[in-house]
Amino acid sequence: MKQIIKESGRVVCLSGLLMLSTAYASSDIVEYGEWGAPENLGTVVNTTKRDGCQYVSKDGLSLYLASDRDTGSDMDLYVAERSSTDEPFGAPVALNINAAGADDVCPALSHDGHVLYFATAREGGCGDRDIWMTRRYDKRDNFNWSEPVHLGCTVNSAKVDQGPSYYEDRYNKYIVFSSNRPSNDSRFAGHDIYKMQLFDDGTPDESTVEIIEELSTMANDHRPFIRKDGLEVVFDSNRQGSGQNDLYSASRKSRKEPFSVPLHLINLRSTGQDVRAVMNRDGTELYFTSNREGTTGSIDVWVSKREKERDHSKGRDD
Questions:
Q1: CATH architecture designation of domain 37-305
Q2: pTM for the whole thing?
Q3: Which positions ≥6 away from 135 have C-beta within 8 Å?
């Protein structure tokens, strides 16, 4: 049974864990059911080492992830494939763009599948972990990526820049990411959530880097992912004050509006660290990284599922 309450002029749906303005019609309050019990992706995808910081392709047939399964130390990028979304993913295979000792992590595809963004501490960066990009001609070929290109030291900083995720609306393309670069605003500290616009070729417009204020706090706010329709964002944060990273979600009525106050996804919370949440194309599956009970190694890839209860919109720009 769903529980819907009014709180400070807003409507909170505790089952779907979405916070929406009261301007919604009652039939639009709940679009999705609640997230189900997380399931470990199993020992074909996960190992006794570190496996996580994953991203699922638009067609749901490729799962990109980072792992130290072959090195035992630094993380490399891998992809697990399947021929149908009804089947489990196969064993992950290393990409052709990994750099020894660099910790290559958190891959994210553009919507057209031709560009891959990821974070790495390889040589040629601005100081710490930075965001890089690589291209492929054939979007069905997971193993023929071009030489990675650094996004520059305006997009990146001398601090940690990581967790990139691609998003586009009717007018612009964006990368959202997290960074612990210094802020001149006393409301923010630690890691905060940023966005930047992209040119048509996927390269960054360096003049557009800005913090997403409604998602950032004095705590550490990490690795954002915006659902394809632009109306929901998920990320991880330790804003509860325990030092533990948990998953959060926020929503908005249209792509031009700011996101609502983020809600703690308490039904996905564990006693471990839960980080880097990404959704599949229609928002019914949430893949995330965790060391919760049942994890095979240090960290594993998990998935939670929910039902779409009402498909009222593909996302609005006004």
A1: 5 Propeller (2.115)
A2: 0.89
A3: 114, 115, 116, 145, 146, 202
